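Handout for the seminar on molecular recognition.
Each group receives one record of this type.
Step one: identify the two inputs.
Step two: read the structure output and locate the region that could contact guanosine-5'-diphosphate.
Step three: write two sentences on what you found, then compare them with the reference statements printed after the record.
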Amino acid sequence: MLDLFTIFSKGGIVLWYFQGVNQVLTEPVNALIKTVILQERGSVSSFQHGSLTLEYKLDNEFELIFVVAYQKILQLSYIDKFIDDVRREFRDKYAQDLRDGNVMRDFDFTEEFQRLLKKAEASAKNQAKQPRQMRTFEESQKSQKSVASLKVDKKKEKEKENVGKKKGKAPPEPAPPAAVINGGTVNTGGGGGGEGQDTIQRNREEFFKKMTGKGSKKNIGTSPKPEKEKEKKKGKAPTKWAHGGSSKDAKILDFSGDKESNGTMAGEEDLGDTERAWVGSMSGELKSVGDLYEEEEEEEEEDDDEEEIQQKDSKKSSGFGVFNMFKGLVGQKTVTAEAMAPVLDKMKDHLIGKNVAADIADQLCTSVATKLEGRVLGTFSGVTSTIRQAIRDSLVQILTPKRRIDILRDVMEAKSQNRPYTITFCGVNGVGKSTNLAKICFWLVENGFRVLIAACDTFRAGAVEQLRTHARRMAALHPPEHHSGVKMVQLYEKGYGKDAAGIAMEAINFAREQRIDVVLVDTAGRMQDNEPLMRALSKLIKVNQPELVLFVGEALVGNDSVDQLTKFNQALADFSSMENPRLIDGILLTKFDTIDDKVGAAISMTYTTGQPVVFVGTGQTYTDLKALNVQAVVNALLK
Ligand code: GDP
């Protein structure tokens, strides 16, 4: 009934295998290693690939992986116990060889395997024959409870409640709403104020201090609170941050003073000195946002010295190798689930405190537990430092892109093939799609590429005008006179209420005809649960096959990030009616300037999609676009 059972070392040496079918099964096993084991998804013990289900177990003491594969349609209830039995017997039989690192020998395990398999199948059959009997009332837990005990419980509960009331304890407050804007525009003008707004404001101030190298992270709590804004906004506010950042930023993307566009491009005279100074500042690769945490990194380094010694020791003491010979001489301990539990609990809370979605923090910790349980540590390695290192490795692994995304190079390549490179921006409302689209546009223009902005948000009033203003500004910053008479930025718009997929297609065709290098497609913000809108987005992507589908998400978002991304991806898959549907390829993380070191959304989003953070939005000027620095973000997360 089993298609495959294989035992291999973490280094990739196959020790023994059983194959029940003629087919070559390397691909599903490789897929399991690539998508589950190497991507820190150790909390998942079962994996589906084509028509197969694969289950696996790690043996961390001997660094072995046991994998079983069987047809998906079979419901084999005995697999979990069976892998354990095989693991135990294999370890017992070859303990000495495994300890000595003698893995190239011939492992003859077929007889034991067949015996265990027969036993497992027979017991599964027996269980199937005997349907589970319902418990009698006497056997149930309820029968143990006397009526009196129930009464006492209720009384106690009441007493507890009263004590709480007497002490003036308020009933537990609902958690403050996350500063996520779902369905509305972020009130960046400062209207409303409120505590959440204050925190964002404080974080922004910290961020800008870090950016300019002034101030230290220590005064986060003591930084002066910004004055309350008096003016209230009406409708979609001008993009203006009165207190955020340097005085330079006050002008930035506040285009509220712009005259109603008549479709013509603005002239040079419309630009301020600040804006003019931007020209030429964004050429080349994007700078990394991680430089902000440099200070913290230095401190970390000191702490790390001590840990490094421990790590080296733990590396030496695990796996096959000459150091195993000394294991018997120095004290050693095996990592157990019980020893890990309190440390992992703390780690989970810490990650949640850094805004990692609770589910993801949980899965991450479970994955680390699976990876470490049973591992033998040397005398000098503590469980805490081992876990910390494992978490650090996992976080780095998650954030490190699995494939290269080099947009400038890809645009060049598309250009050499006489086709435009298309990026589609999607996400919920108010997260910063249009603003960050404009920043990317500016960066591309600064690198000498011609850009066409396709206004495919045909839904939200003002969306087209917002892009028109951006296009005018950028065209004024890079006027045709500076580029041999060529228009560097243009807008493709067809007003409101039309089919977005159709407009995107027309825009791409227009770009091809006009030899424009990049098309940036703005789409309407939509909630992940809105089926008709999700269907429309799926159609837009299916019809136009953009080179990059960017999900724009706020760094402020907590648990909701997982829901948003899972549902966006699910909808793109469900509504595409294609065998290999296009899903989200990358993430644009906005409002990074408002979160200080609570950088958890980066982890939640990359873990959920398996896709990298391609851009980070760090403010409201065209130059506030950065790349992610994985190490620095991980440092901030573990700080
Ligand atoms: P859309 O509805 O998704 O297109 O969102 P908008 O582009 O209209 O942006 C919503 C608000 O978020 C605007 O006020 C932007 O100025 C602001 N915003 C966008 N990106 C950033 C960022 O990186 N940092 C900050 N602080 N604000 C941003």
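Reference statements: The pocket of guanosine-5'-diphosphate is lined by residues 185-186, 188, 239, 253, 429-436, 525, 590-591, 593-594, 617-620, 624 (CB under 6 Å). The radius of gyration is 29 Å.
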